[in-house]
Each structure stands twice: as structure tokens, then as C-alpha cells.
Specification:
The structure holds two protein chains of two kinds. Chain A is an all-alpha fold. Chain A is built from 18 helices and two strands. Chain B is mostly helical. Classes of the chains: A mainly alpha, B mainly alpha. Chains A and B meet through helix 7, helix 13 and helix 17 of A and helix 4, helix 10 and helix 12 of B.
């Protein structure tokens, strides 16, 4: 009942401790009380911050329009951040919207990667056709798993996806005629996007497309049906929502995104091998999505970028702390960093901070749109639910 | 495909499967214990084993302790990890959805793997001595011409001992309290059983079992970070599911069954299928969950 008492205390200060944050996750959002918009100075600050953000995404990685020489950033590493964002949005569809879990997402991505490489190298097709085929194959295999998820739910389904991922990695990815065995399959980049910088912009375009599809999906009937179904499939069914069709559809969409992400990943590396698509990668995907903040597009993108850059060591380079961690007393290298730091962040997100990065991006986003700079409280919904378990 | 399986090959595969399956049984029993106590699929179960290996290895190589004491140190490391997980991850999430708990235990496993990689970055592949380390002992027992190492025999013996001990444990007052708490937590609290204490005990037991499985699996072979999670966790889960996830004898039998099925995948007939043993595990899991989710050994649910 302590929670109830705190609820009625409307006019308390907005500085929230983590404990309070948890207590207030059940709060209804208080009515916005600010009467006036920001001052002209405030608008200038907002536009300036917006421009810096746009510059950091669009110009900084490729070193164009830089007032000073930045250097040190690898376009490929930043491309990976963008590709991971696509994959994160794919996983977000499953964990966030459907409320199920995929511990075999590395298989989704790997299938996309190998399909795309196969279509380009062995069948001599264009990259864009290959990416389309990869996303369709990704959607098809995900839809199959979705059909299984109608019968086997919750924890048991998580186990199935885990076993599926390992099986795919050990069996399908080892078939030499499809994947080129240990040597891998060549995956050349499309004409006009050969350089790392241009390929980065291609990845950004795909991310924009995926964000758009995701946004339209969730803003229309299908999205509302999915959310209703995640809350309670039986109630959703009584409202006339076709539970089976929408579940399979959501899986297909997730597989589509993952296949697309896989294709981008393959052609970024110019060569696909089976090794990286192991269980640990699936866990990194889950961590970046959950830490990013489920059902929060900007948060998922931020979380994915954070983990991709952490993995590559770019983040530490940018912060000029790579040496601090790499020196003997700690000797923590960039490759290991996400494995050590990620789980800690994951456990903190789950236990204390259910909104993940999404809470921060929402705060900044609202400020940029002219709102007050105030910490956005974690929505009650922003946590992994398993009503279907 | 011609199904030409010679009898000798089949019997060899059976022995191999049973011997390998003992490890799966040990992990599966731990998984079932935790599932009964906390209702969660413990993805850190395999990592209890790997942590035990690293603990024992550190005792040998850094402090030059004798082998037996090293094993105890390893088990202690696994126990500590199990208790810490229970206290700092499971208990705060007591009322959280089960999938959240699953992700949390996967996080624990990944953290352990990460720390193992971090601390052994210069040389991730190391060698762990077998319990009995004389070369002649390797083929002392060889049913159907399969050389079964002493390490594997000891594993079978440990599995049998664990089964007997657990059987006795669940007849003792404490064991009955554990069973009661897993079936009716609220009613158990009312009759004076501390569900929290039971949870701690169960996680400790599971961690010890996982640690023992790891130490037995690693003996006489090389090990690397995440070894048990990568090699044993999935077959272990499959074994627990095959056994019906709440049945300890079912988990033990399921482990042996999965071991045999996996070994069948290595028959020369299936040589053309890549990773056939992984496919067989996946197919078994899928079929059991789709057709008979209560497990193969459940009488009636």
C-alpha cells in the first residue's frame, strides 16, 4: 500500500531516485502542466543540438563537412552500428510486440547473410535483388517458427529458438555448397556503394526504411492487434483479432528485418563465414534490444549502436579511454567488453531501470520537439511480459 | 540413403551415447531442481560447470594445490556463483515474468563467459587434467570395443551417487519441505517452511550439480570460456524437457536418451548431413514439445 500513498503525492519534486522510479512505474502519466513553449533562446539551443546530432550521424562517420579533422572513426564500424539497429528492431518486434523471446536470432541474421551472398555470388544477381530474396527467406523461416510458437509458448518456445539457432549454425551454415564452408561465401558490394563511406549511407537508408515500416506497422490496425494480443491472446480473440495470423505476421516481419540486416552485414564484410553467428551473438542482440528499451524505436537504435560500437572498440576510442581499459591491471579488450559490461547493464535494466536507453532518448526527443527537459518516467508497459508463458 | 548400420557400430554408438549422456543427466537434474524451486529455465546452469572448471584450474596452476582440493575449490566456486545468482538476480525478480527471469539468467551466464574471456585473454584454450591420469587406464573397460576412459566411468558413478543422494534427500524433512515449497509456496509458508531458505538451498544444490558436471566433463581435455554452456546446456535442457521438466528421474533418463540420440547422429549413415547430432537434438526437442509436452515419462497429467 506504500505505493498507493506515494501515488497521491502529486506535487513532489521531479528528481527521481531509482526506488521511486520503480514505485512510480504504475503511475498514470500526470497531465502536462507546462503552459508555454520554450523561449527563443531555448529554440536556438534545440536546433543547435539537433544539428549536432544530425552531423554526428550523417557527417562525422564519413568525415565530410567537418570543421576539423576528426579521423579515427571507421565507417565500417559505424555501418555495423546501423545494421545492428536494424537487427535490434527485428528482435524488438518479437520481444516487444509479440511478447515472445528469440534466443536464436543469430540464425535469422545468418540465413539472411548467406542467402544474399549466395544469390549475388552463385546466381550472379544484383545486390538489391539479393537483399530482397534474403529478407523474404528470412521472413519465411521466421514464419515457420511463428507457426511453432502458436503451440509451444513462453519458456519452452525460448528453448526451441535456442536449439534452432545452434542447429542452424552447426548444420545449415556448414553445408559447403550453400555457404562455402570454412572459406565462406564472397559478398561483393553493389555498384556505386563499394567504398565504406557510401555503404554506410546505404545502411542508413535501409535503417530508415525499417524504422518507417515498423512505425507504420505499429500505428495501424496490425500494431494495435499485436499489442492487444501480447496483453492477453484470449481477450484479443474475443475482440475478433485473428491471433494466429497476426502472430505469424509479426514473426514474418521480424524475419524480414533480420534477413535485411543479415544481407547488409554480409556485404559490409565482403565475405560471410559461419563462425560469428554463434549463441553469444544472439545474446548480444537480446542485450542490446532489452537495454535499448523495448517498444521504443529510438531506444532500440541507441542500444544497438551502443553495443556495436562497444564491440568494435570505437566507443572507447571516441571517449579516449581505450588505453585505460586495455592496460594490464584491467586489460579488458574491446572484443570482450560487451560480454562483461553488457550483462551488468542487462541485469540493471531488468531489475531497476525497465525503460532502458529508451527513457533517455524519449527525454531528449521530447525536449527537441519543444517540450521540457524532464526525465520521462518508465512506462509500466516497458518491460518484458510473458502473458503467453 | 542406404540404412546400412552394422550391429557393432550401433552398439558402439549406444555405449558412447550412454557415457556422454551422464553429463547431460547431471545438468538436466540441476535444471529440474531450479525449475521446481523458482519456475525458471536457468541458462546459467551450464556456466556453473565452467566456473567450477576455472576455479579448480586456478587452484592447481596459481596456488599449486593438490587435485582433490582443487576440485573442492571448483565446487565451492560453483556454489558461490549459484548462491550469488539466487540472492542478487532471482530474489529481486521474484514476482517478475518468467521470461524476464530467463533473460536474467542468460545474462548471468554471459557475464561469467565474459569474465572468463577477459581473465584468460592471452591464452583462452587450457588443459584440465583427468582424475585418473595414467595412460594405461584409458582402455581398461571397453564394452563392444569402445574405450571408455576412467573419467567417464567416474561420471557414471557420480550420476548414480547423485541420484541415490537426491532420492534420500527428498525423503528427509528438508527435502519434503523443498517439494512442498515448489508445489504450494503460500501454504508452505503457513506451515512454517521458509520459501526463501528453500530457494537458496535448491540453487545451491543445482550449482553443486552443475559444478560437478563441469569438472567431470572437462577432465582430460582442453577447455575454453563458456565450454559447458556451449556443449552441454542445450542437450541438458532437451533432456529435462524429455523427462517432463519437473521429474528428477525423468531428467536423469532423458539425459541418457539424448546422449544416445546424439550419438546416433554420428553414425556413418548420416555422414552426409552436416551437424547431424545437433539436428537430432533439435528435432527431439521440437517433436517432444509439439506432441507430448508433458514429457516422455509422465504417466498422466
Amino acid at each position: 500500500m506504500a505505493v498507493q500513498d506515494r501515488d497521491s503525492d502529486e506535487d513532489r519534486t521531479e528528481v527521481l531516485t531509482l526506488d521511486e522510479l520503480i514505485a512510480t512505474t504504475t503511475d498514470p502519466e500526470p497531465a502536462p502542466a507546462e503552459p508555454s513553449g520554450p523561449t527563443p533562446g531555448g529554440w536556438v539551443a534545440r536546433v543547435a543540438v539537433g544539428l549536432v546530432l544530425a552531423w554526428a550521424v550523417l557527417c562525422y562517420p564519413t568525415n565530410v563537412l567537418s570543421p576539423f579533422t576528426v579521423g579515427g572513426v571507421e565507417a565500417n564500424a559505424v555501418s555495423e552500428a546501423v545494421i545492428f539497429a536494424v537487427i535490434g528492431l527485428s528482435l524488438n518486434v518479437l520481444i516487444g510486440y509479440v511478447g515472445t523471446i528469440s534466443l536464436g536470432h543469430q540464425a535469422f541474421v545468418g540465413i539472411g547473410a548467406f542467402t544474399s551472398a549466395y544469390v549475388v555470388t552463385e546466381m550472379g544477381q544484383e545486390f538489391f535483388i539479393a537483399a530482397l530474396v534474403a529478407s523474404l527467406v528470412g521472413a519465411a523461416q521466421a514464419a515457420l517458427l511463428g507457426a511453432v510458437s502458436l503451440r509451444v509458448t513462453g519458456l519452452y518456445f525460448g528453448l526451441i529458438t535456442l536449439s534452432y539457432g545452434i542447429m542452424t549454425q552447426e548444420s545449415i551454415f556448414q553445408i559447403e555448397s550453400l555457404t562455402g564452408g570454412t572459406a565462406g561465401q564472397a559478398a561483393p558490394r553493389p555498384l556505386g556503394f563499394e567504398s565504406d563511406f557510401r555503404y554506410y549511407y546505404l545502411c542508413l537508408l535501409v535503417l530508415a526504411l525499417v524504422v518507417f515500416i515498423d512505425w507504420r506497422l505499429m500505428a495501424t490496425k496490425g500494431g494495435r492487434a499485436l499489442l492487444a494480443l501480447r496483453e492477453n491472446p484470449r481477450v484479443a480473440a474475443t475482440w475478433g483479432i485473428n491471433v494466429k495470423a497476426y502472430t505469424v505476421l509479426a514473426f514474418a516481419v521480424s524475419g524480414l528485418f533480420a534477413g535485411l540486416g543479415g544481407a547488409l552485414l554480409a556485404h559490409r564484410d565482403l565475405n560471410v563465414v559461419a563462425n560469428p553467428f554463434d549463441f553469444r551473438l544472439a545474446l548480444v542482440f537480446i542485450m542490446m534490444t532489452v537495454i535499448g528499451g523495448l517498444r521504443n524505436r529510438a531506444g532500440v537504435v541507441a542500444g544497438a549502436a551502443f553495443f556495436a560500437l562497444l564491440r568494435n572498440g570505437e566507443l572507447l576510442e571516441l571517449l579516449r579511454v581505450a588505453d585505460v581499459f586495455a592496460k594490464p591491471p584491467i586489460s579488458l579488450t574491446a572484443e570482450v567488453m560487451p560480454l562483461v559490461l553488457g550483462p551488468v547493464l542487462l541485469l540493471l535494466t531488468i531489475t531497476l531501470f525497465p525503460g532502458g536507453f529508451g527513457q533517455l532518448t524519449s527525454t531528449v526527443g521530447r525536449w527537441l520537439r519543444g517540450g521540457p527537459f524532464r526525465f520521462v518516467k518508465a512506462d509500466k508497459e516497458v518491460q518484458i511480459t510473458d502473458v503467453r508463458a | 540413403m542406404v540404412l546400412a548400420i552394422s550391429l557393432s557400430e550401433l552398439s558402439r554408438v549406444l555405449v558412447l551415447g550412454i557415457v556422454n549422456g551422464a553429463i547431460y543427466s547431471l545438468i538436466a537434474i540441476g535444471l529440474v531442481l531450479v525449475y521446481k524451486a523458482s519456475g525458471v529455465f536457468n541458462f546459467a546452469q551450464g556456466e556453473f560447470g565452467t566456473v567450477a572448471i576455472y576455479g579448480a584450474y586456478a587452484a592447481f596452476s596459481m596456488f599449486h594445490l593438490p587435485y582433490g582440493i582443487g576440485l573442492v575449490v571448483g565446487l565451492a566456486a560453483a556454489l558461490a556463483m549459484g548462491l550469488l545468482t539466487e540472492r542478487f538476480v532471482i530474489r529481486p525478480l521474484f514476482d517478475a515474468p518468467r521470461v524476464t527471469l530467463l533473460v536474467a539468467t542468460a545474462g548471468v551466464a554471459l557475464l561469467a563467459i565474459g569474465v572468463e574471456f577477459w581473465r584468460t585473454a592471452n591464452n583462452p584454450l587450457r588443459f584440465f587434467d583427468a582424475i585418473v591420469n595414467s595412460p594405461s587406464s584409458l582402455d581398461r573397460v571397453s564394452p563392444f570395443g569402445v574405450a571408455v576412459s576412467d573419467q567417464r566411468l567416474i561420471t557414471l558413478a557420480v550420476l548414480a551417487a547423485a541420484a541415490v543422494l537426491l532420492f534420500l534427500f527428498f525423503r528427509s524433512p528438508l527435502g519434503l519441505a523443498v517439494l512442498a515449497a515448489s508445489q504450494e509456496p503460500v501454504a508452505s509458508e503457513l506451515v512454517g517452511v521458509s520459501v526463501r531458505r528453500i530457494s537458496t538451498i535448491t540453487w545451491g544444490l543445482a550449482a553443486l550439480l552443475g559444478g560437478a558436471a563441469g569438472l567431470l566433463y572437462a577432465g582430460g581435455a582442453q577447455f575454453s570460456p563458456g565450454l559447458i554452456t556451449g556443449a552441454v546446456l542445450i542437450p541438458g535442457f532437451t533432456a529435462a524437457i524429455v523427462g517432463g521438466i519437473t521429474s528428477l528421474p525423468g531428467a536423469a533418463a532423458g539425459g541418457i536418451l539424448v546422449g544416445v540420440l546424439q550419438a546416433l547422429g554420428s553414425l556413418s549413415t548420416f555422414e552426409s548431413i552436416k551437424g547431424a547430432s545437433f539436428v537430432s537434438v533439435f528435432v527431439v526437442l521440437l517433436v517432444v514439445l509439439l506432441v507430448r509436452p508433458q514429457g516422455l515419462f509422465a504417466s498422466r497429467s
